[in-house]
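Today's session is about reading a structure prediction critically. Students often jump straight to the picture, but the first step is always the sequence itself: look for stretches that repeat, for charged clusters, for runs of hydrophobic residues. Only then move on to the predicted structure, which in these notes is written as discrete structure tokens rather than atom positions. Here is the chain we will use throughout the hour.
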Amino acid sequence: MKYWIGAAVVVIAAVGAALSGAVNEYFFYAAYIVLTFVVLSTAWNILGGYAGYVNFGTGAFFGLGSYSAVVLFKALGAPRAVQIVAAAAVGAALGFGVGIMTLRLRGIFFAIATVAILFIMETLMVNWRYVGGATGLQLLRPDVMAPFSSYTRMLFVVMALLAVVAVSVARYVQVSWIGRGLRAIRDSEEAAECSGVPTLRLKLFACTVSGARMGAAGAPMPMYLSFIEPASSFSLNWGVSALAMPMIGGTAHWIGPVVGALLLGSIQQIVTVTISNEINVLVVGVLLVLFVVLAPDGIVGLFKKWIHYFK
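Below is the predicted structure for this chain, in token form.
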């Protein structure tokens, strides 16, 4: 009950901020990106954190979700909600397909396979002229819906809703038998199979749900930028950030990716404004190395140790 009250408060606060004229417009530009990272890192953690299968192909799902939204908008003029649902469905289908092909691989072999999927998706979009090919496609935003005063404010609220849904799914997975099964796979897949855990089905479920969330996160991005092109949509940076944020926040608990995304995403936005956008990758790398060496269980794990120490 406490969680759902907190989720409702987050949504209400997001809507209230979007309708307020006193909040600077840049806040919504930056907050949208941070919330996107919350969705991506939470989605990544279902497969990478709970099950232990490290996925570097986040950009493939994110980019495919973005292009799915663009195709629907260009061909049918589909509304935002339809674009997001379609992007989630396409991301889920890709996740299921990737799972069928790669989940029997383990360790570094699975990670390499996910990177290959990323480059395959990017190459396909580079050679598809309908969506602009390698040069990309300029998009004209539709009229903003009432009661929002700008399109960015509306997208901020949309992404806040997606973040609440993504975190809710991750929380449910963790506390259910599905989460227990995924953690058993992470600890020892052979032992889990011997204990009767349906390992392949659980891994397929995790890959499908993770892909759906990542695809949905990509759907609003083209209208946020008013532009789409393969290099940025399928960037490996999406995968690195989606991996780093749960590692920094903590992969063992659903709140870990949220903490990591809010912290690292906010730092990246501050660095972008004050120094340079090119420093973002350096910030991610330095923080990731520090936490892996000094706090391998992330911020949540470190907090639990402090609580236990001061009891």
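Discussion point for the tutorial: The beta strands are 137-138, 227-228.
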